[in-house]
Amino acid sequence: MQFHHHGYVSGDPRVQPAAGAGLDRPAELPDEVDVLIVGSGPAGMLLAAQMSQFPDVVTRVVGRRPGRLALGQADGIQPRSVETFQAFGFAERIVAEAYNIGWMNFWGPDPADPGHIVRTTRTEDYGLKISEFPHLIVNQARVLDYFAEAAAQGPARIVPDWGVEFLGLQVHESGEHPVEVRLRHVAEDADGTEARAGRERTVRATFVAGCDGARSGVRTAIGCRHVGVASAHAWGVMDVLVNTDFPDWRIKCAITSAAGNILHIPREGGYLSRMYIDLGAVAEDDNHRVRSTPIEEIVRRANAILSPYSIDVRQVAWHSVYEVGHRVTDRFDDVLPGVARTPRVFLTGDACHTHSAKAGQGMNVSMQDGFNLGWKLGAVLTGRSPETLLATYAAERRPVAQELIDFDREWSSLMARRPEEITDPQDLATHYLATAEFPSGFMTRYPPSSIVGSDEHQHLATGYPVGMRFKSAQVVRVCDGNAVHLGHHARADGRWRIYAFPDSGGSALAQWAAWLATPSSPLARFTPADADVDAVLDVKVIYQCDYAEVDLPAVPPVFLPRTGPLGLMDWEKVYAAGPNAWTDVDIFTERGLSREGVVVVVRPDQYVAHVLPLTATAELADFLGRSLLPQR
Amino acid sequence: MQFHHHGYVSGDPRVQPAAGAGLDRPAELPDEVDVLIVGSGPAGMLLAAQMSQFPDVVTRVVGRRPGRLALGQADGIQPRSVETFQAFGFAERIVAEAYNIGWMNFWGPDPADPGHIVRTTRTEDYGLKISEFPHLIVNQARVLDYFAEAAAQGPARIVPDWGVEFLGLQVHESGEHPVEVRLRHVAEDADGTEARAGRERTVRATFVAGCDGARSGVRTAIGCRHVGVASAHAWGVMDVLVNTDFPDWRIKCAITSAAGNILHIPREGGYLSRMYIDLGAVAEDDNHRVRSTPIEEIVRRANAILSPYSIDVRQVAWHSVYEVGHRVTDRFDDVLPGVARTPRVFLTGDACHTHSAKAGQGMNVSMQDGFNLGWKLGAVLTGRSPETLLATYAAERRPVAQELIDFDREWSSLMARRPEEITDPQDLATHYLATAEFPSGFMTRYPPSSIVGSDEHQHLATGYPVGMRFKSAQVVRVCDGNAVHLGHHARADGRWRIYAFPDSGGSALAQWAAWLATPSSPLARFTPADADVDAVLDVKVIYQCDYAEVDLPAVPPVFLPRTGPLGLMDWEKVYAAGPNAWTDVDIFTERGLSREGVVVVVRPDQYVAHVLPLTATAELADFLGRSLLPQR
What we know:
The structure is a homodimer. Chain A is of the alpha+beta class. Helix content of chain A is 23%, strand content 27%. Chain A has 15 helices and 27 strands. Chain A is globular. The interface between A and B is large, with 71 and 71 residues.
């Protein structure tokens, strides 16, 4: 965590100095905004936290609820999401309060007594094997709390406008704020100073993000169709505090029995668990009657499935019934096929993909929607990038949503099988393990585009597949000899990262650094004259040698920039590969990096954008020029 | 982190439900209190956080400042202190924002050019080798912020009464609140609603903790003498933001040069460092004139010492000059030698031991003073323990203070040597490493007393020396198969911990557990009838076998108690030794535990109180009966 560089900070360093729109932010929703976020779920709140890092952009978030979410909804957190939380500054805190999935156990009918279940398999969870972060379960409400904190503590000081309902919008052809949005106050706002319930408002926005869930009004307003099928299978879900003799109450389990199926998810705090209980096939003429299944019936089913074990429910914290649907929206923005114009309205999260809850994916994919969109909006609205950048949102995220739906459909079907349909009792566990990287969030691979390069030089950095998320590894910070995670230095601040891994001789690095220091380099061209030299491109070097052999005075100055109002040298861009006393890892070995040197370019949302040799300076300049605008 | 057991918690689980005195806490300082803490430094604020876990006790903290500390003062945090922070719930957060000491480097005169310094040694810091927590540097203000948060979020909802000055006290011979304390409001309180500056107040307290620093008024009021000498050596200290070519600006260093000495301490945030700069011997007739040394002179000295390197100071965050003193107070409470009565007034921290800042000890030892005292006050005031327990505070902490002074005197002298006094350039580094456990805070060993047993059975648990702090180790939580730190489950909640390590056969454990479940066992006798069964003694078991082999339904019920208003089973008292998929550690091997089984008793302040065989039930009952009162 770096601070004090704008002068001594006495209080919580997580509270950044207010700037721009955050300096005198009106309590009332203004008539004109740059970004209007509709909805305060995982995508919307991540987006709010991201936009708070762009204080020159006026962003507001409207939510229909009178205040923070209190209960229920999603709880599965992929390692990929925890990586994202790290970039927003709250990973260590949420890990400390969440349930950490160490194992997933599988239960099936006892061959000797098919009316009883027995444990068939214990399976290590995949989380810590493919990320430095675990796989967690924690209530969505807490995730939203942390994003709300990040939004409020960022320079733009963004807090949601609660109790505001979306009514409709119209995209005009011109004007600085071409999207006309109709809203209605549905309740008092949090401060309750004005009776305004029922009052309608019009807000003009430059861009609108529809983060308003499965029944998205924004989706309807831009004429999208939510395409797919509702399955004829219903599930009850309950968050319950119980006493039980079921020994795996605190372990994630898939339970298959003659009486039905349960997906069992322990929750944060050591007592609470969530159960997804199979309510069976739904008749075609049911007309959603299944949704009124009483909690007593859900508990009764759970006990029937768990036999010979049982649960004694002491408190129901939340429960619901849903029918599994798998739908993807035909468009993720307001641009019709074949039309070439800047998208003005975007859909994220459940507004554009809905599916079962049982693979624990929804909240995670929604957050990555927000992460993909946020930096692009920030870059365009601050003049760093052309508006064409915004077309990449739908192009990148719609295929991810389709993959998710396909994965979830398969997983849901496997989970809903009856015992007689199961030929191999291990196949659910086998499927779970074989596909672990997908539900962890690590299989997303964006195709080549203006912001993803070709894989021509992939062999120089085999551990950083172009288009996939940058996987952190331990390195040694030269200035203090501490082992740190290279990726953790990158915060969700809208900046691109350029990691230079020198050649063993050092001459290629020296030439590359000298080139970067010239006035015609991307560093100079794409950075506003009045901004810090690392405001757009954050350039770091990771030497091959032991940290103690790096002679700091001989390191090219481009890696030791002087920034901030005091012009202080930044010591934290110069690293060395381990091992040393504090780490066993040599990042060159661990990530398959060429000893001849390589440059890895990473997007603001942590995806590897390009891999290039140190000598490919023209290609680097060209690549960055595809999505960044010259500033001088 | 365990929660939801009193019903579903929607918000931050770190905020505990208010209870007792925390339910309707008066904003004004009341006329009568159980505990009055005078001073809001590290000892006082730890004590406040601890007392907040005793909501049936009325505790107030008075501080002279108008509000939180903003700047300066101590910054060294031993691993022992981070262990303590863990028990108060904020270790992971303060680690994330602190400077982590990975190395200590030593610089001396260049033999080829004695006017210039050269790096002579790099030394790994000891922190992570002797604790699972690192050795940190972070401003005292942040430590106080976190303790203030813990105090405010605990059940008693304790917040300091700011702007209140201590004037004097008188200890009366009888009465429920025998200490009469005179106070004066020196400034508006934080809410500024009432003009009361200058107004005097009398508060009657049952006990007073003097945490009011080196010029303690409480110390004076109880007639203690602060014994020792001021050395004739002065040091300047400054927290500065600089640009420099000194390559170790971000590494802790001891620098010895012909021009004087520097102890260099990098600080949190990546830019700031603290320098202790030798101002040389002070003339006998100086009369503290050295204390007015201007900052420019301190910077000039620093540059002279650093030659050929230099610092360009861009901002001075804080600076001061002090003369090294080494003093210990003759008594740590108000009981005169030879008198046998309950102490009513206690001294902690700088109020009873002052010394140089350069071993980074002061704040740490002060906090352990508060930790030692807090649970004892809570136990006595809630009727769990006899008042005789309070005499152990001075008996235990005064020798620790004396050891600290002796250590610091030696370290300060070594640091202040001139180059010509140094025969072996490595000896400072050698001394630093050889004594590492002391400055880490791990050498404290309390002698046998009513709360520390004999070492008769020490061979059964060689890794848990009786009287020393309980060193955590990884184990596997049986209910969920996660690797966790056994010691981290213990929070600073005033409870005793009893860890049962079963014999390999299990019959001794079965008998021990059966005994503990009888109505005459310490568990029944010392726990109030209306309290949770684990309210006084928190009993856990750590099996030798793999966690998957532990049959939870066969575990003795005493390890699976039902607590809280819902009577929910607590799953987190049953552990197994590793290794498993998530840890390499077998606690039996790691801590030298007998495979025949052993019971380890740990005090509320994390010190090992006793080591006993499973068969020694009478001895265990007797030992606990020395400091706990029967409740039924």
